[in-house]
């Protein structure tokens, strides 16, 4: 039997889920934030938490390394589709009809979601389980 143990990515998954929840909250506070982006971020956080909890509860299994890929895809999709709801506002700022302070909440959301995406990519490379 091949013994396995938890990798650092298992603990990094908790941080990724935390950033996904923070991005979810910030998207809800953004004036033009959409519910579809919020749903994607919430599902990504739930999947990541489930992968970490299953790794601790059921023991390390290589399938848990694959589950985190879905988190990365969902965060990336949520981040890219969030710009669609902000196009009119971005156009108003670029054309000078509005000032950039109206987009500050959105820029904060993009920063937090971007950090969650980068950490999720690192988490995928580190993996949740490693062979002993």
Describe the overall structure.
The chain is mainly α. It has one domain (4-131). 73% of the residues lie in helices and 5% in strands. The chain is built from 5 helices and 2 strands. The protein has a two-stranded antiparallel ribbon. Helix 1 runs antiparallel to helix 2, helix 1 runs antiparallel to helix 5 (104-126) and helix 3 (63-82) packs antiparallel against helix 5. The radius of gyration is 17 Å and the shape is elongated. The termini are close together. The mean pLDDT is 83.
List keywords for this structure.
about 5% strand, two-stranded antiparallel sheet, elongated, mainly alpha, about 130 residues
Brief overview, please?
The chain is 73% helix and 5% strand. With 132 residues, it is mainly alpha-helical.
Q: Using only CA atoms, what is the Rg?
A: 17 Å
Question: Structural class of the helices, strands and pairings?
Answer: mainly alpha
Name the overall outline. elongated
Helix content: over 70%
**Average pLDDT, to the nearest integer?**
83
The total number of structural domains is 1
Count the DSSP helices. Answer: 5
Number of strands: 2
Please specify the SSE layout and strand pairing:
Blueprint: E1 4-6, H1 8-29, H2 35-57, H3 63-82, H4 87-94, H5 104-126, E2 129-131
Antiparallel strand pairs: 1-2
Helix pairs in contact: 1-2, 1-5, 2-3, 3-5
């Amino acid at each position: 039997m091949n013994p396995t143990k938890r990798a650092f990515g298992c603990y990094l998954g908790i941080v990724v889920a935390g950033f996904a929840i923070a991005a979810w909250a910030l998207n809800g506070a953004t004036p033009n934030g959409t519910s579809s982006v919020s749903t994607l971020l919430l599902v990504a956080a739930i999947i990541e938490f489930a992968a970490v909890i299953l790794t601790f509860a059921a023991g390390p299994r290589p399938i848990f390394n694959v589950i985190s890929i879905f988190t990365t895809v969902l965060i990336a999709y949520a981040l890219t589709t969030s710009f669609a709801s902000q196009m009119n506002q971005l156009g108003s700022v670029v054309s000078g009809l509005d000032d950039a302070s109206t987009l500050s909440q959105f820029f904060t959301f993009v920063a937090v979601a971007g950090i969650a995406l980068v950490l999720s990519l690192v988490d995928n490379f580190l993996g949740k389980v490693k062979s002993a």
